Amino acid sequence: DPNEDTEWNDILRQFGILPPKENPKDEIEEMVLRLQNEAEVKPYEKMNLKELEEAEDDFDEADREAIEKYRQQRLQEWKCLQRRQKYGELREICGEQYVKEVTNAPEDVWVIIHLYRSSIPMCSLVNKHLSLLARKFPEVKFLKAVVNSCIQNYHDSCLPTLLVYKTGEIKGRFIGITQCGGIYLKVEELEQKLAEAGAIETDLEENPKKGIVNMILPVQNIPGCEAINTKSSDVMKPHIT
């Protein structure tokens, strides 16, 4: 064994036949180096906002200036995270909440609302997909509402109805089974549709069905899907014409 500590190996090392024996690192030296490296990291860099506030008096003036910059950075990161995680679920609303939740939503928020009827299987499929997408895109407000609570006498042939809002205006609409993607709609296809409407940023490849299922006809050209006038108190109905 060339690494064995014997007189013969020492003689061979003297004649250059074996390489010099490596000296084992001193454990104390290693510990000192580790402590020095840890000391180079300021303690406030490991603190959250609350801990920074509590420990502020323990730092000198130079540290306080660095802490303030660090605090602002952490605060911006926190605000960004809060904005991105503001929603994260498919919520049910009724017609009376339509104006508040949809048309009067914050200007920087995309709103996707599904008008549905629980007796229609395609509506159930869309709600299932929207629930998954709501978790994937928590910065977007995903809503659903029973259609009769928003528009009276809305024809079943127009369901599912998906409306995409931004700044109180409809930016995209998918009306009926065909426009929503068909009875075999996959969640990836729905994600691509909403991305093409501008509501979400997807990393999926372009939808191969884009030219077929994403055509959007004017509502007045779809039999039975006109926006019906309702009683004066029904101010929440969406204007989709």
From TrEMBL:
Gene Ontology cellular component terms for the protein in this record: cytoplasm
Keywords (A to Z) from UniProt: Coiled coil
Organism superkingdom: Eukaryota
InterPro entries reported for this sequence: Phosducin-like_chap/apop_reg, Phosducin_thioredoxin-like_dom, Thioredoxin-like_sf
Coiled coil: 45-72
Domain Phosducin positions: 34-198
BP GO annotations: protein folding
Family: Belongs to the phosducin family.
UniProt protein name: PDCL2 protein
Organism encoding this protein: Probosciger aterrimus
Top-level taxonomy: Eukaryota, Metazoa, Chordata, Craniata, Vertebrata
